C-alpha cells in the first residue's frame, strides 16, 4: 500500500513539474516604432530643453538598490531654476540606466513615480527579501515546479519580485505614466556574451 501511494505521489509530482513553465508573453500582431514606451514618446513638459540629465544605477543587491534610492531622495530635495520657477532636480532626470540591484529602484520609480518615497523602504529595502526568496525555493510545491526543464530558479525569482514590487506591470504601464525618466534596464545575454537592454526596441 505504501509503495502504491509513493508511486502515485511521484507520478503526480512528475505530471505537475511537466506542466510548470515560465510565462510566455503574447506576441504582438504588429510593431510600430513610433508608438509604445520609447524615449521620444515619454517627453515631459517640465524637462528643460537645454539640459540632458541621465543617471546610472549600478549593481550590488539590496545595497545598490538603497544607494540609488538615496540618490533619488537627494535629487527630490534639491531645488533648481529661477526663484519664481524652482522645481526639483529629480524632475529634470531624462534617463535612468541600471543593472542588477539598481534596477529594482529604477523600475519601481519608472512605474510608480513619487510613490517610491512612501513604500519602497518597507516593501523592499527593509523587507527580508533574500529570506523570502529562499523560502520560495525550499517550498515543496516549488521544488516540484523547479524539476521542470522549462522553469528555473530565475523564473521563480522573477515571479517573486513581480509579486513583491511590480504587480504584473508591462511596457504598457510604463508608457501610461506621463513624463520621463525613460528607464533602461541592462543585463547580459549569457549565450551570446553580449549586453541586453530591456527596452521595447530591444525586446520586440
Low-pLDDT regions: 5-18
> How far is it from the N-terminal to the C-terminal residue, by CA?
54 Å
**Rg of Cα set:** 21 Å
Shape: globular
Helix residue percentage:
40-55%
Largest sheet: 4 strands, mixed
How many beta-strand runs?
A: 6
What percentage of amino acids are in beta strands? 5-15%
The number of helical segments is 9
Q: Which key phrases capture this entry?
A:
single chain; two-stranded antiparallel sheet; alpha/beta; 204 residues
Question: What can you see in these coordinates?
Answer:
The chain has 204 residues and is an alpha/beta fold. It has nine helices and six strands. It has helices at residues 2-19, 61-77, 101-112, 116-125, 129-138, 140-146, 153-166, 171-176, 200-203, and strands at 53-57, 79-80, 87-88, 93-99, 182-189, 194-198. A four-stranded mixed beta sheet has the order 1-4-5-6. Helix 2 (61-77) runs antiparallel to helix 4 (116-125) and helix 5 packs across helix 7 (153-166). The longest helix is centred in the first third of the chain and has 18 residues, at 2-19. The chain is globular.
SSE blueprint and pairings:
Blueprint: H1 2-19, E1 53-57, H2 61-77, E2 79-80, E3 87-88, E4 93-99, H3 101-112, H4 116-125, H5 129-138, H6 140-146, H7 153-166, H8 171-176, E5 182-189, E6 194-198, H9 200-203
Parallel strand pairs: 1-4, 4-5
Antiparallel strand pairs: 2-3, 5-6
Helix pairs in contact: 2-3, 2-4, 5-7
Short structural summary:
By secondary structure, the chain is an alpha/beta fold. The chain has helices at residues 2-19, 61-77, 101-112, 116-125, 129-138, 140-146, 153-166, 171-176, 200-203; strands at 53-57, 79-80, 87-88, 93-99, 182-189, 194-198.
Amino acid at each position: 500500500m505504501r509503495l502504491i501511494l509513493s508511486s502515485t505521489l511521484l507520478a503526480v509530482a512528475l505530471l505537475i513539474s511537466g506542466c510548470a513553465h515560465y510565462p510566455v508573453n503574447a506576441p504582438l500582431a504588429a510593431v510600430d516604432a513610433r508608438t509604445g514606451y520609447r524615449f521620444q514618446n515619454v517627453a515631459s513638459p517640465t524637462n528643460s530643453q537645454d539640459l540632458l540629465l541621465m543617471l546610472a544605477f549600478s549593481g550590488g543587491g539590496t545595497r545598490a538598490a538603497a544607494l540609488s534610492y538615496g540618490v533619488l531622495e537627494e535629487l527630490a530635495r534639491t531645488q533648481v531654476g529661477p526663484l519664481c520657477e524652482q522645481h526639483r532636480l529629480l524632475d529634470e532626470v531624462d534617463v535612468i540606466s541600471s543593472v542588477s540591484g539598481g534596477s529594482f529602484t529604477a523600475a519601481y520609480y519608472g512605474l510608480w513615480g513619487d510613490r517610491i518615497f512612501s513604500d519602497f523602504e518597507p516593501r523592499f529595502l527593509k523587507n527580508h527579501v533574500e529570506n523570502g526568496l529562499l523560502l520560495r525555493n525550499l517550498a515543496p510545491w516549488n521544488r516540484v515546479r523547479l524539476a521542470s526543464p522549462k522553469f528555473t530558479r530565475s523564473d521563480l525569482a522573477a515571479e517573486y519580485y513581480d509579486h513583491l514590487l511590480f504587480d504584473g506591470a508591462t511596457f504598457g504601464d510604463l508608457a501610461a505614466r506621463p513624463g520621463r525618466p525613460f528607464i533602461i534596464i541592462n543585463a547580459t545575454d549569457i549565450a551570446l556574451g553580449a549586453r541586453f537592454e530591456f527596452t521595447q526596441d530591444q525586446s520586440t
